[in-house]
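so my prof wants the structure for this chain in the tokens format not the other one, which i didnt know existed until like an hour ago. anyway here's the sequence
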Amino acid sequence: MFGSSIYVKTNPALTGGSPQHQAEAFWLAERRKRLHWRAGLAAVALIAGSWLVSPVFGLALALAVAAGHTLYHWRRRAASRTWRRGSHGERETARILRWALPRARYRVLRSRRLPGEEETYNLVVGPGGLWVVDSKAWHPEARVAEYAGRLFVEERPATALVDKLSDTASTISHMISRELGRPVDAVLLIAVHGGSLPRGGRITAEGVTLLRPLRVPSWIKSHPVAEHSPAEVEEIARVAARLLPPAPYR
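here's what i got, hopefully its the right format
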């Protein structure tokens, strides 16, 4: 394609016709309507506040309403940022893990993958176990729910997704256990960027926990699945780093 870089792979999420591109076009097209609504709500607040209390109160109320309207749309926009960029959110999740987990006790291995595969995962090794943290970015309005023990995304079963990720965690567990000569279980977590999760920002279905990225560190610290000494944490992290190569920088 003329004008594209030969060094950077084209991201289909940012090209015409993709859901992300359509969402971006819709956001820009609706800008004037948002501004009209903001001005109209502020005007109503100004008139009502001035009539009921005082002109100063009316002005303050109008500013508050305009700010609230701006914040509401900004939060909706921010919630879709990762999805709009065509990213799975792995980098954002890694930054949260490294910032929130004490480095003296936890080791975070960013962007690791099974040999020969493209999918990447963040690994966390700590005194409470080994976690494989996958990241998924869905449209903010994509409903993520559990029904009868099964996971659904946008009302479609996600069993195939869960099975694939669970197999990956099992393979990682088997590789590390075989290398160390003792069992080391790997627990799968899914960090959800965007999407519409139930109240509380967490869901458990088909044996897998899905939660907001900011909640992943506290979940790891409060839900231990094993007991590892500091020496064992270092040993597991060292073996995992050798067996699971990091993804090349993109």
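also thought this was worth mentioning. The two ends are 20 Å apart (CA to CA).
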